[in-house]
Design a protein that fits this description.
four-stranded mixed β-sheet, single chain, Butyryl-CoA Dehydrogenase, subunit A, domain 2, globular, Butyryl-CoA Dehydrogenase, subunit A, domain 3, 488 residues
Amino acid sequence: MAFKTPEEYIESIAGIKPRIFIAGKRIDDVTRHPNTRPGIDAVAKTYELALDPEHEELMTATSHLTSQKISRWNYVPRSIDDLVKRRQMNLLMSQTVGVCWPRCAGTQSLQVLESVTYAMHQKLGTEYNKRFNDYLRYIQENDLSANAVQTDAKGDRTKRPLNYDDPDLSVHVVERSDDGIIVRGAKVGPENPFAVHELIVFPPVMPLIKGEENYAVCFAIPAGTQGITYVCQSGPMEAERREAEDIGTLGSPVYGTAVSVLYVFDDVFVPWERVFMCGEIEFAEDLLTKFESIMNPLCACGCKVGFMDLIIGAAQTIAEYNGVAGAAHIRDKLTEMIRVRESLDVCGMAAVQNAKEDPSGSGVYFPDIMPGLMGNLICHYDLPQSILMAADVAGGSVVTYPSELELRNPETSQYVERFLRGVASVPTEDRMRMLKFLQHWTAGQETVRIWHGTYPPATTRLILYRQAEGSLEEKKKLAKKLAGIKES
């Protein structure tokens, strides 16, 4: 099959024309807007790397459906080695672009749906697995990119979908016909939908109960489908990018920050061939658990490992620029950051190395969920502390420095050059750029995104306990035996 070049990918995205808004204005061309182009460039890198002979083995695979070489982003892992490569691919991408990219979650969606629709077919005799494989073949043959859309708008967090004051706070089915379904509602969060061809929409991130069948819906839809509206985030970094005279003065010049979105589905039609769950509430939790299983080693213990490489590298560099790299407290902070990085890496490797087929007969491999859960908790609690340490290493200048443009301003350049330089051998411009890069991580949106980018701690702890609950009786027996307590 033919792989898209980065240029062909960008041209295909330019033709989608979604209904999208940023900072109160509608965007006509997402390939040109300063807030949307960075996300497109990040996805374009996945296409570029797939054509690079140096990364061919990592970035491509052979489809089990067509026996053709395809992008690994559209491949469903069928062995431990596949999962190892899949995680390495995430690590390479995060080191290369330094930002979340939507194709990652899209790939996870393909894996989860291959498994869950197979289980539904085995138990219920549905056509969902056949539909999904037809869809997967379409994605593979056309080298398309996809993103997962999962998190609900929710509103009052004390209420379930069945009891929402506004039923549209989550996407749900409002009409069924011979041709398909009509859905309505809202989702939030997943980054850069304007940078992909397809959206894969999932039920709420919770086990569903009787009466919530209309919310147990999962489907795929082209990103530019009529009835979908995207309302994008617009924080300080997005505003800065819109106003920048030169993006080279920004902390991450090319790839920027990932742009999260409010997705509104206003009576959107979905044909049956693109529907992979519709009312089967008993399988909603299986989707959730499998997403957690794959997301943790790839995202919390994959992408975040690559991000830590960037943060550690920047902290070490600025310490050298400031002339304090040899100070004991600086070394201690960097050592702690390295500990966190390596802990995440080990959890991710353990998860994929202990992968198993799930369910039996499906051919789909999933990581061991327990090491991934532990890595997710490290990501939640230790990684933000590492980011604060990087800020401490850099010093207050990480948020108080003037713009690099002052170096080009004849009225201020002499002051900036004289008073804001570091060690004599380092150009002031280099020091300013590294401080701005660290500001991108330590004083921007990325820390909160890291915290919520995988499932939140409460959800992770709940799944961790549920996974361990079955082994508690055996652990009790071990303790009682050594304590001399006889079983009744």
